[in-house]
Write a structure and sequence with these properties.
With 140 residues, this protein is of the alpha/beta class. The protein has helices at 32-42, 62-86, 88-91, 105-115, and strands spanning 13-19, 47-50, 93-102. It has a 3-stranded parallel beta sheet, with helices on both faces. Helix 2 (62-86) crosses helix 4. It is globular and about 50 Å long.
Length: 140
């Protein structure tokens, strides 16, 4: 979590949540590229968080495995948004100004977290064993 370099007199700031690259099999929030991006956003007055998401998939069924990895990543992205919404005061976040971003596969996570609704999940996704997008099995 990175906060603005400006003074502490502002009660809430916009939040940017960034997701790292990793092709759904590697990568983490400590990658220098994503950390530098996050730090640079704080110079413009944003609070920024680099967030990990579950990775890994079954290579024996690559298409289904990747789709399930994306589904789990969306669950984790949505959980991150819920976490920051619930802890807005502790992090001094303006919940009307939460933005998502990422590089490469992290951008896929960000876009789908922001815009994918349960009803819009494509039929070819076999998500029967993955629960709903807001049911990731975590506290948020």
């Amino acid at each position: 979590m990175f906060t603005s370099l400006f003074g502490d007199d502002i009660s809430s700031r916009p939040l940017v949540i960034l997701f790292p690259d990793g092709d759904f099999i590697a990568g983490n929030k400590e990658q220098q590229e994503i950390v530098n991006w996050c730090k640079s956003l704080t110079t413009y007055g944003y609070t920024c968080a680099c967030v990990n998401y579950r990775q890994g998939y079954d290579n024996s069924i690559p298409k289904e495995g990747v789709n399930q990895a994306i589904h789990r990543a969306i669950q984790d992205g949505r959980a991150a948004v819920r976490f920051f919404m619930e802890n807005q005061e502790a992090f001094r976040i303006d919940t009307e100004k939460i933005f998502l971003g990422g590089n490469k596969t992290g951008a896929i996570v960000a876009l789908n977290t922001a815009f994918m609704d349960e009803e819009e999940l494509p039929n070819f996704l076999n998500t029967s064993n993955l629960n709903c997008l807001d049911c990731s099995g975590n506290l948020f």
